[in-house]
Amino acid sequence: MRSIRKHLDSDRQNMADNKMVTDSMRKEVVLAENLAAGYPGKTVWKDANFSFERGEFVAIIGPNGAGKTLLMRMLLGLQQPIHGTIKIFNTQPKRGNPRIGYVPQRHPIDRDTNIECFELVKLAFSGKRWGLGLPSKAEQKSALEALEAVGAAELANQPLNALSGGELQRIFLAEALVSNPEILLLDEPLSNLDIRRAKELVQLINKVVRSRNVTALLVAHDINPLLPFLDKVVYIANGKAATGKPEEVLTSESLTALYGVHIEVIRDSRGNVAIIGIEDHHGDE
Amino acid sequence: MVTNSNIFSVNLVVDLQQIFHYQFMQHAFEAGTAVAIIAGIVGYFVVLRRSSFAAHALSHIGFAGAAGAVLLGVSPVFGLLTFTSGGGIGMAILGPRSANRDVQIGTVLAFMLGLGVLFISLYTGYATEAYSILFGEILGISSSDVFVTVVASLVILIAVGIVYRPLLFASLDEDVAEAKGLPISLLGIIFMLLVALATSMAVQVVGVLLIFSLMVTPSAIAQRLAKRPRSIIIISVLIALAATWSSLFIAFYEPYPVSFFITSIVFVSYVFVRFVYPSKICLMCRKKFNSMSLTKHVEKKHPNVFTEDKS
Question: Over the stretch A85-95, which tens digit does the pLDDT of each residue have?
Fold first, then answer.
């Protein structure tokens, strides 16, 4: 009798577990628990817990060398966590996940890259396949749709080396969107843009996030152009990572509590934020 | 090989009949054609990956191999193939970025040339062997060399056909290609092997020192004339073919080396394309393009791109 009851209990428990699993599958795109990032023998940051949901616009902010790109590389399966777990779409990150669209910090595109934008976006669609590949309608259509989604259809036949920094970033965004990803990883897309172009690009990314219901993780130095659009912010500095809504994370109290040193968050009349008091210290040796 | 009985006539058919009457000219055209095609194709990837110095170094590594083969009494092609393939794989394994390490490559390059000089000095035959490896001797190519060249060219063509899209993507945007799961290091090795094979073939036509003229310059010219990889490759092959064919043709009547004509033709074409032809046209295009404000243009087509807020 007791064993039957035990059995029933465990069944009930299993059902509850399953329900939790399906719930989290529905919502969570990225889940990190006690995550630590770094290289063998060097921890860059640790004890990070966060989750990103479908359709969220998330900024990853922090000084140079704080380990922002490390997070991207872990999600892409190019780097292993040194402690804790990170899951994307409820599984371990694996290289070549077609549900991820990636815009790296550096592209080897320079004055000599005389290839037209359309070709780059098409390659992002079919470059994984072996063989010569005849021009296909699906490829053309997807590439054109991706360019239209970033308002760059007019640039399709321009060579890459004739574009301005802002235009290039739009093309790279199209390159990432062409495979219809569910999450976008954007590594410092704003770094070479002036304030106006940066704002335009952020508005465009926000439009993509809302209209396609994709999650976007954007790495940046400066949070201010992003602030009006963000759902969440991950603030990585000094070997730690703080996560939450921007208005919750970016306060003097929460950052002071997290880092154990006095940190001041100053807001000006336009809502711009400045974070003062974090020493330029890059993780624990 | 140039005799006074060969006199250029206005009738091209007669000229060609006269040229193809000689077997060495037939061989030269056969090998030259195969080499021009593969050099034009592989050269595009060399230019795209900015590995022209690595390609240049491979040809010098090949010089040591060729000289060693001569010393052993085998055909230089086999020495070229072994050394360039070994060097190519080595460079690829040392790191994907190794192809851009000027100083290291230069150091190895100089050592290999030195090694080649030693082999040549040990060889008791004529110094013409060294001369033909360094500067090419397509008019002296044997029928077995033609066979090896054609087979190697077919291998390169098939290999490029298989890896074309992934190699192009990895060459153009390596980080994205890596994130998408492409085998970047394997593609790097395949690329270096392709360059090694193509270089070994091209050395027969233009020699170790003039490898740029077939492996790099035609693609560099083509890159300025077209914007799509396929078109660039086709133009690059056509330029390499035109340079090789016309040089063989001229060399039949004039007592100067074929490699001189090839290098001169591609150089003049490059200078023309670089400084005269497209710059004027591009300038016109850019002026027109810049005159319309792009943001306005995009906004007209997609009214909400820059205005929509978080909804």
Answer: 999 999 999 99
Inside any domain, residue A130: yes
Check residue B294 and give its pLDDT: 44
Alpha-carbon gap, residue B78 to A108, rounded angstroms: 36
Domain contains A271? no
In-domain check, residue A174: yes
| C-beta separation of B168 from A123 below 8 A | yes
Average pLDDT over residues B98-111: 75
* CB A57, CB A216: distance < 8 Å: yes
Judge whether A95 is closer than 8 Å to chain B, CB to CB. Answer: yes
Domain range for A191 is 27-99+183-249
A257 inside domain: no
Question: What are the φ and ψ backbone dihedral angles of A266, each rounded to 5 degrees?
Answer: -110, 135
What domains does chain B contain, in order, with CATH numbers? 12-301 (1.10.3470.10)
The ipTM (two decimal places) reads 0.84
Searching chain A, which residue's CA lies closest to the CA of residue B47? Answer: A112
Mean pLDDT to the nearest integer, A76-98 = 93
Q: How far is the alpha carbon of B232 from chain A, nearest alpha carbon, in Å?
A: 9
Whether residue A86 is found in the same domain as residue A201: yes
Mean pLDDT, rounded, of chain A: 86
Please tell me if residue A176 touches chain B, with a CB cutoff of 8 Å: yes
What's the CATH number where A67 sits? 3.40.50.300
- Both tokens of B272, joined, read 């023309």
> Can you tell me the mean pLDDT for A149-157?
93
Q: Which chain B residues are Cβ-neighbours of A117 within 8 angstroms?
A: none
DSSP secondary structure code for residue B276 in this structure:
I
Mark which residues 80-139 of B lie under 8 Å from A by CB.
none
Chain A residues whose beta carbon lies within 8 Å of the beta carbon of residue B308: 203, 206-207, 210
